[in-house]
Amino acid sequence: MSGVAVQVRGVHKTWRRGGGTVEVLRGVDLDLNPGEQVAIVGPSGSGKSSFLHLLGLLDGPTQGTIQLDRLRGRRVGFVFQAHHLLPEQDALGNVMVPVRLAGGSVSTARARAETLLRAVGLGHRLTHRPGQLSGGEQQRVAIARALVMGPGLVLADEPTGNLDPATAEDVFHLLLELHRQLGSTLVVVTHAAELAARFPRVLELRDGTLHAAS
């Protein structure tokens, strides 16, 4: 794996449905370089989200291997279409959660969270809970939370899918800019062809395997 951040070899994923089985991934191979930006496109039900969960080690393949290497701290940050913010916590508290779970002190967690929330333009909304924030603001909090531990790999699953076009554009631009500053490897699953087209590398998940997008 010399020089490679992520290596995927022969990955299959099978789900049990209705008493039968469905194979959504059929031998996926992929190399991701440190700092690379990759968009993955494909029709609904093609297995894009399943593959992203495998990349982030949230699930295991039915067959094949996934190796993470050359990732700073070997940490993975996730940004999902649904924000998954804690409703009882304000923006600051939500972003502090990963640092606290990793054993960081309250002061360290607060300092990191404040820095990132200011970076995403929410310095004036630190004490607002998710219910007091717009959809775009909630997604900005989710991005800050995903990046607060300085992950070597950032995975985003339809991060702008629930947003209006103008807000989606702002959030997408912010994600790319923060990724560049962080120097992490970024993989984004999206249905938006115009957003995917901005990536230097676009892959299509089709018939259970990855192909270079035409």
Explained architecture:
By secondary structure, the chain is of the alpha/beta class. It has one domain (6-87, 136-212): P-loop containing nucleotide triphosphate hydrolases (Rossmann fold). The protein contains 6 helices and 9 strands. It has helices at residues 48-55, 91-101, 106-119, 135-147, 165-182, 193-196, and strands at 6-17, 20-32, 37-41, 63-68, 76-80, 153-157, 185-189, 201-206, 209-212. The strands form 2 sheets. Strands 5-6-7-3-8-9 form a 6-stranded mixed β-sheet. The mean pLDDT is 90.
Which tags fit this structure?
single chain, 214 residues, alpha/beta, Rossmann fold, six-stranded mixed beta sheet, three-stranded antiparallel beta sheet
- Rg result: 17 Å
Q: Strand order, main sheet: write it out.
A: 5-6-7-3-8-9
Secondary-structure arrangement, i.e. CATH architecture: 3-Layer(aba) Sandwich
Structural class: alpha/beta
Q: What's the overall average pLDDT, rounded?
A: 90
Query: Tally the helices: what do you get?
Result: 6
The largest β sheet comes out as: 6 strands, mixed
**Measured distance between first and last alpha carbons:** 27 Å
**What's the quaternary structure here?**
single chain
**Share of residues in helices:** 25-40%
Tally of discrete structural domains: 1
